[in-house]
Specification:
alpha/beta; 6 helices; 40% helix
């Protein structure tokens, strides 16, 4: 198993060097869910090089190198994006639409992790070429297990 150091990037301290080293981009505004996801990633030693953002706008800025993430150097993209559907400013489905519509970013695996069980969210996500749509289980232990398995798959196996 890959042994990565503790997260290098926190929400409020992101340097350009760190932006280019990111492996996991977490876009989720629910503090409890984000804490569970980050904890699960720490348990499987995959929490290093993690960026956690809380709005769709921040996520798009990060992915496309805009706003506070603007730099003129060559960008490395995350290996996987964990995306919530229900986000402030720009909904997760719109973030997904922008990622998958761009020739360069469409290859980034996107895993929707959401509490939504609405059929339209599932259909829209797969129509936009999401790589996986996972409904967050209510049980915290099960949620932690699923996140660990997803991260292991997308970062180590795939």
């Amino acid at each position: 198993m890959l042994n990565l150091p503790a997260p290098e990037i926190t929400r409020n301290q992101t340097s350009m060097k760190q932006v280019n080293d990111v492996e996991i981009l977490l876009i989720n505004n629910n503090a409890a869910d984000a804490e569970t996801i980050i904890g699960a990633l720490q348990q499987v030693k995959l929490s290093g090089k993690l960026v956690h953002l809380t709005t769709g706008e921040e996520g798009l800025d990060f992915i496309f190198g805009r706003g506070r993430f603007y730099n003129q150097g060559k960008r490395k993209f995350p290996k996987v994006i964990f995306l919530d559907i229900k986000l402030p400013e720009i909904e997760g489905i719109e973030v997904l639409r922008h990622i998958k519509a761009n020739e360069i970013t469409r290859v980034i695996p996107v895993v929707v992790l959401t509490s939504s069980t609405e059929k339209k969210d599932i259909i829209n996500s797969y129509n936009l070429a999401v790589n996986s749509f996972v409904v967050k289980p209510a049980d915290a232990a099960q949620f932690t297990k699923i996140v660990g398995e997803l991260a292991s798959y997308w970062l180590l196996i795939n």
